[in-house]
Write a sequence for this structure.
């Protein structure tokens, strides 16, 4: 599994970071689909594998799902999750269309 993108997000109440990683899409022989894995460390603590009919679709859907977990988290809603010391705004990844009431810009 090859990491293709990563970011360290800030917590307003701690020096600890939230690590976000996206892994390269891989062919899943069993499912007959491409899959893209992402990981978000504690305190969100999510690992998911998102599938698509092409590697590009799996990657795009994986990024949208990752974004939904970040912008939908209680940490973000409470202004405790940020990037580069800025909280309550962009996390350096676009938000899903359904979250534009709280996130800065869409996919």
């Amino acid at each position: 599994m090859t990491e293709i993108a990563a970011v360290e997000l800030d917590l307003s109440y701690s020096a600890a970071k939230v690590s976000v990683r996206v892994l390269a899409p891989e062919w899943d022989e069993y499912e007959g689909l491409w899959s893209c894995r992402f990981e978000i460390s504690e305190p969100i603590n999510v690992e998911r594998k998102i599938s698509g009919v092409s590697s590009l679709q799996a990657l795009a859907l994986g990024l949208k799902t990752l974004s939904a977990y970040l912008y939908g988290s209680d940490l973000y809603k409470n202004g405790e999750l940020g990037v580069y010391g800025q909280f309550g705004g962009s996390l350096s990844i676009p938000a899903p269309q359904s979250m534009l009431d709280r996130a800065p810009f869409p996919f």
